[in-house]
Amino acid sequence: MAESLMFIENNAWWLLPLMVWTIPWKGYALWRAARLSHRWWFVALLIINTFSILEIFYIFVISKKYEVIVEEKE
Hints:
By secondary structure, the chain is mainly alpha-helical. It has helices at residues 2-10, 15-35, 39-47, 53-62.
């Protein structure tokens, strides 16, 4: 346990670039899933951390098949 904690402490420099890469992709994918009412995708994207691989797949493959229809009421 202590060895793995020391590894993280000694190599924490990579966490910031990883967070800068992951957070925007995750946020955009979650937003798209919510707008398209894809509840299961939203839950999967929220829970599973794949360093943006799943998020990028959802954005460019799955969500492109659907269209958001906005109805305006008078």
